Amino acid sequence: MNFNMDVSNHDLMIGLDLGGTKILGLVVDRNAQVYARIQVPTPRVSEQIENQVLSVLREMLESCSSKGARIIAIGIGIPGYVNPETGVVIGAGNLGIENLPLRKIVFDSFSIQTHVVHDVRAAALGETMFGAGRGKNYLGYVNIGTGISVGLVLDGKIYNGAASRAGEFGHIRITKDGPLCSCGSRGCLEALASGPAVAGRINNAILNGRKSLITDLIANDGAEVKGEIVAEAAKLGDQLALDVIDETAEYLALSIGSLINVLDLESIIIGGGLANMGDLLISPIRNKLAKYLLAEYKDNVSVLPAELGSDSGAIGAAIASCIELGQQTN
Amino acid sequence: MNFNMDVSNHDLMIGLDLGGTKILGLVVDRNAQVYARIQVPTPRVSEQIENQVLSVLREMLESCSSKGARIIAIGIGIPGYVNPETGVVIGAGNLGIENLPLRKIVFDSFSIQTHVVHDVRAAALGETMFGAGRGKNYLGYVNIGTGISVGLVLDGKIYNGAASRAGEFGHIRITKDGPLCSCGSRGCLEALASGPAVAGRINNAILNGRKSLITDLIANDGAEVKGEIVAEAAKLGDQLALDVIDETAEYLALSIGSLINVLDLESIIIGGGLANMGDLLISPIRNKLAKYLLAEYKDNVSVLPAELGSDSGAIGAAIASCIELGQQTN
Prior knowledge:
Two copies of one chain form a homodimer. By secondary structure, chain A is α/β, with parallel strands linked by helices. Chain A has ten helices and 13 strands. The first copy, chain A, has helices at 49-66, 102-110, 119-130, 190-193, 195-207, 213-221, 227-235, 239-263, 279-289, 312-324; strands at residues 11-18, 22-28, 34-41, 70-78, 81-83, 88-92, 97-100, 114-118, 139-144, 148-154, 157-158, 267-271, 302-305. In chain A, the strands form three sheets. In chain A, strands 3-2-1-4-8 form a five-stranded mixed sheet. In chain A, strands 11-10-9-12-13 form a five-stranded mixed sheet, with helices on both faces. A three-stranded antiparallel sheet of chain A has the order 5-6-7, with helices on one face. The first copy, chain A, is globular, with a radius of gyration of 20 Å. The A-B interface holds A 137-138, 150, 154, 159-169, 171-176, 183-185, 250, 254-255, 257-259, 261-266, 291-292, 294-296 and B 137-138, 150, 154, 159-169, 171-176, 183-185, 250, 254-255, 257-259, 261-266, 291-292, 294-296.
């Protein structure tokens, strides 16, 4: 692990973003300045994840120690339900983890204060304090990828809900019927606007004979329909790509409008895989949102892309661990 | 004003619910025990409302004083946007009030700590502490009347939102099209499941030749379609009434399901005019809700009618004033 600055005698935190495919570890300070990073694949066998996490942390801690830096806290972001008080991962479907006392395991190994937090909520906190949401106290970080969820920051704090399960934005119903969702219901936002939903609509259109540049782009790439390919086709003016993006933006705008109307939010930040489309997706969401908002919100709610990009979860987890420690962030 | 118990040397609060048609004043203690009540019509001329409020309060305070009770705080519930910190009514459309510094006006008149709060949020607090939501920390009080709104209690506290405008549950979109709503959008919950929406669907069906007992009930009553009449017809087995209630319950269940999935709530309490239908409306909501909820909520979210009935707003406002004072409630 290489450091991009002198860190001797610095009080720093480690932020770990434990994703479905990779584990990202960052060494950061209270200003969310990143001093070093490491990335390793997430083991496919869930029993090996715990050891991989400990091994990454050990390597990071040894590097920090050798450079004279002090690690005062560790924050770990998890794509699943976490009890923020006990640090137990209640369930993380993508990782195959259930009832894992991750905080205790990490603390017992390194004797460093550890905080475990939902990854999207961590990203929401990171963006609120050091990204696109700076200065806001009420915002939703909408993560659009394989699933759709929202990390809510209410009154300046991460909102967890009664049993730490809040944020299932993908499972608000935006139509009584509509396509079947993975949750078993119909008409969920996730079944209409997630990465797989977008790919599904494009595949269907092509199977039904619709001409599209995407057909060639997939053939060249030797891969399946993905956000990047849809974005590339849209930039080349492909009508199918543009239509599907427009429709997706409509579903997202409608749902985001409802969220703002009920929760009186100041800002929406869009992150996750599909957000890599950037303004191609975010501009139409912004334009369509006006018609779904109550009049009082029309001129003063911002919709912005995530600024911290794929670092937001790890940075947010580190910052959350610092707050948990009772230390002031800047 | 008559007292139903001896109140000499008691520390009590006044809760005032300033509604569109009536002003309800209650004298309550920290256990939400009601000792006396008064009700007067709300003046139709908005400029007279302020004087009517002061006159009701003066009468209540004189009665309390003559019985030897001490009023330690006044809470006022308002159907509109209130800045809870300054006690200014930013806007209350139904009352024709705008930018009224109500807390200051009341405090200047009586020198008693005064707290002004959104009426539905006050009701939510009242139900959480002393009604159907006892023991819960995360709940939504859904008020279904002329409009539809939700008072949210999150982490045990009233949730106001960024600019104290939270709770516009009537303006979540449950279908992309649908009937026009008063807000100018289409497909809002309020345009499908409020009192006027229910009446509108019944009127349309009757105009289109559908036979219903409601026709006779309206003729006998000499009035328009109201919740009570629909409920009466449904109890007599009228198919139109039953169909419309069923459809309304479906829209409400769908929306409530989305709310629970996003906010991880423990309980939903149903109040407001349409809730007077009781189990006729609440049972089908409860039954239909399961299919809109994520699996983890199916067995542990309760849907209950408001227990405090039409007193919930005034009781909640009184309790909020007591909390604001830093006094413990029981």
